[in-house]
Amino acid sequence: MSSQSPAINAANAAKASGIEIYTIALNAPSSAISLLANIATDASYAFESPSASNLDLIFDMIVNDIVCQTVTNPPYLVNNCLDTCDNLHVDRSRNSTSGEYAINDIECI
Fold first, then answer.
1. Is residue 48 a contact partner of residue 33, using CB atoms and an 8 Å limit?
2. Which of 32, 51, 69, 106 lies deepest, with the highest CB count within 10 Å?
3. Cα–Cα dist 16/23, whole Å
4. What is the distance between the alpha carbons of residues 42 and 37, in angstroms, rounded to a whole number?
């Protein structure tokens, strides 16, 4: 049994219960990149960056992906989601009881 098995097993259990997992390999060796790729929901959820200078772009891509999934599910239907949006403003609030976030408004500026 490899040392990666517990992490992959935990990720697989989370994914099986509907949790989406994004990973970012920051200046990581190939073994860590491979592990994180296996932990991610699928290949499109695994990111690799040789330096911290790319993190803002990666985080923007992740936010866009999450927001697009949220706003394109009924009752919200948005054509092309954020493809034409240069700058995204997401107004969100956190429920103090459940800890869950709610999107109040999404605006392309």
1. yes
2. 106
3. 17
4. 7
Contact 104, 95 (CB under 8 A): no
Q: Which residues contact 3 (CB under 8 A, 6 or more apart)?
A: none
Q: Give the pLDDT of the chain (109 residues) as one tens digit per residue.
A: 455 589 999 999 999 999 999 999 999 999 999 999 999 999 889 999 988 888 888 887 887 777 766 554 443 434 445 554 555 566 666 667 766 656 666 665 5
For the chain, the straight-line distance linking the first and the last C-alpha, in angstroms and rounded, comes to 51
| Alpha helix stretches (DSSP H) within the chain | 5-16, 30-39, 55-72
Residue where the block lists tokens 């997992």: 21
Please write down the long-range contacts of 98-104, taking CB distance under 8 Å and 24 or more positions apart.
103/67, 103/70, 103/71
